[in-house]
Design goal:
single chain; alpha+beta; Nucleotide Exchange Factor Grpe, Chain A, domain 2; 3 domains; three-stranded antiparallel beta sheet
Length: about 180
């Protein structure tokens, strides 16, 4: 039987070994015996085991990072789609009488508040530039820019997709349509 002296919490060692399907039992509180059938397959010098544990921790860390990034992308996608839905919903409300409009507007404001809270938890926020003067350095792609001259004074008419910002800066560019400012 291979023997191993304890250098860190014994319960953690036993749990780690059994998670990997390795038979292990304690001989004394500080000495573990690894079942003989596993001895030829693995070297159980302390440094090599700790390296194996470190590699597993790094893999777990990479998996958690990937999961976190996927969740963040899902929140961003839902925020963009809720923005689009809001535009359609606003046009639909125009067809209702004033009493119904107020009730549905209230429900939709609650929904948007929940979306903003989810974005805030992910350290993100929506930026709306509708009605602002257009600047070529703006974090939005204008769909109809080719219909204007370079000397025209332009403003953002509609945002089709919002700009998403995070703590580190721009996360996703928006999509806009422009209109000429009449002086």
């Amino acid at each position: 039987m291979a023997m191993w002296t304890r250098n860190f919490h014994s319960a953690a060692l036993v749990m780690l070994l059994t998670e990997h399907g390795i038979g292990v039992h304690r001989s004394t509180p500080h000495l573990f015996e690894i079942d003989e059938e596993f001895g030829p397959q693995m070297k159980w010098r302390r440094g090599e085991f700790l390296e194996h544990k470190r590699e597993k921790s790094m893999a777990d860390s990479e998996e958690n990072t990937t999961t976190t990034e996927a969740m963040r992308e899902a929140v961003i996608s839902m925020a963009v789609e809720s923005w689009r839905f809001g535009r359609v919903f606003d046009r639909l409300l125009l067809n209702l009488d004033a009493g119904e409009q107020n009730r549905y507007k209230s429900q939709f404001r609650w929904f948007i508040k929940k979306v903003e809270q989810a974005l805030e938890q992910a350290d993100l926020r929506i930026v709306n530039v509708e009605g602002h003067p257009f600047d070529p350095g703006m974090a939005a792609t204008p769909l109809n820019i080719e219909t204007f001259d370079a000397k025209d004074s332009l403003m953002v008419d509609q945002m089709l997709e919002p700009i998403i910002m995070g703590k580190e800066g721009l996360v996703r560019t928006g999509t806009v349509t422009l209109r000429k400012v009449e002086l």
